[in-house]
Amino acid sequence: MRPTTVRARATAGAVVVVAAALGLASFALLGLLEANLLRNAERDAERQALTIARLAASGGLDRMRAPLPGADFVQVVNARGRVLRATPNLAGSPALGPARPMRPGTAFHTWKVRPLGGEHRLRVVQVTTDTPQGLVTVYVGTSLRDVDAADDTTTAALAVGGPLLLATVALVTWRVTGRALRPVEAIRAEVAEITDRDLHRRVPVPPTSDEVARLAQTMNTTLDRLESSGHRQRQFIADASHELRSPLTVLRTQLEVALAVRDPELWPELIGGALEDTERLQQLASDLLLLARIDAAQPVTAVRLDLGAVVRAAVESRRGDRVPVRTDLEAGVTVEGSELWLTRVVTNLLDNAQRFADHRVELVLRGSGSGGGPQAGTVVLEVRDDGPGIPPDDRERIFERFTRLDDARSRDHGGAGLGLAIARDLTTHHGGTLTAEPSPGGARLLVRLPAASSSPSPSSSS
């Protein structure tokens, strides 16, 4: 029996809240109305009781007239319980008071009695006063027909109007909630029809500035990211398949030739070529695995590192480079990150520079300090070479996966087009950036990383 939709829950909630508020308001209204009418009736009866009490105190009870409007009966009783005077509707009736007053003075007492031959309740006001003949009590009763009639009318109006009001609230809430949720249903229906082949579709954005419109915009932004991710994944798979096909084809050809050739003197050359292609396949598989780990957003095991020591160790492990690497490393530059991945960034940048440098490869590391400038708290790692350089239009494209420029970035240099892409992804994973900057001669790649601490120290060169 519980409502299962947002529309039904909102309607039920509104009806329950309004019903509770209406019930409390009805009780308060009936109570206030009855209290006000009772106060008016008692005031009229009290006025007459005081007037007759004054007549009794002065010995003028014979001048008592019929009750004025607002009083239904009057009875005057002495201390012994004898009725001295009464209105015709109480003729022959015993004294109303259950007990006789014991001391002189004036007292006011109000209580309810059963109807005296009528259909409505009565309110009786008692006034006791001292007279020359002793204590005398005056009873003045007034009918509560107006109070009962007002209560009945108000109760009937609330009994009829309450359900009508609740029905109106339910209808209005149902319609308003349905209108508000209509765009949400349109968004849900559109998303339900989107598959992995329809990521180009977008949900409708309502022409409003409310939460539903922002939900639709967020959903479309998410679909943009999913489409971009899907396109990137498909492109990655296609490029990886293409890159793997070439070395596998060459490897198979070399192995087939090795089987066909019976001359043992040619086997070392054929096996050596097959080994080179196997190493290339192994390196490509390793790069693809690393890219998959980066795309999976596996967290970096961040430790405090001396980046100068990491760079120096990476350079010293490259003793057989074609072009010697000149370094200028500032001491005391620390970052937080993975030593293995930061070493891979340096290695990939140096591999790229070694492929295309003519006679010079330079590596510079410096900290920007904490002077409050726009680059404060940033570590800068710069790799420069004197090769053919990077055209301005290609300075961003070189960081795309499996991208090789036609002239300077060809397969002849041994690259698969993943080195710079991996270096940028690893740098981004550490909260930094990798960009290609203008250079008068050759290529200039800049890595910027957040510094763990900035304590300038004199630079050391090697």
Account of the protein in words:
With 462 residues, the protein is α+β, with helices and mostly antiparallel strands. The chain has seven helices and 13 strands. The strands form two sheets. Strands 6, 7, 8, 9, 10, 11, 12 and 13 form an eight-stranded mixed beta sheet that branches. The protein has a five-stranded antiparallel beta sheet with strand order 2-1-5-4-3. Strand 4 (122-131) and strand 5 form a beta hairpin. The chain starts with 5 loop residues before the first helix and ends with a strand.
Keywords:
single chain; alpha+beta; Beta-Lactamase; Heat Shock Protein 90; 3 domains; five-stranded antiparallel β-sheet; rod-shaped
Q: What is the N-to-C succession of helices and strands?
A: HEEEEEHHHEHEEHEEHEEE
How many helices?
7
Name the poorly predicted regions.
370-374, 407-412, 454-462
User: Averaged pLDDT, please?
Assistant: 80
Number of domains: 3
Query: What is the end-to-end distance?
Result: 81 Å
Quick recap:
Helices cover 47% and strands 18% of the residues. With 462 residues, it is α+β, with helices and mostly antiparallel strands.
Note the topology.
Elements: H1 6-57, E1 73-78, E2 83-86, E3 108-113, E4 122-131, E5 134-143, H2 145-193, H3 211-260, H4 267-295, E6 303-306, H5 307-316, E7 325-330, E8 333-337, H6 339-356, E9 361-367, E10 378-385, H7 419-429, E11 433-437, E12 444-454, E13 459-461
Parallel strand pairs: 7-9
Antiparallel strand pairs: 1-2, 1-5, 3-4, 4-5, 6-8, 7-13, 8-12, 9-10, 10-12, 11-12
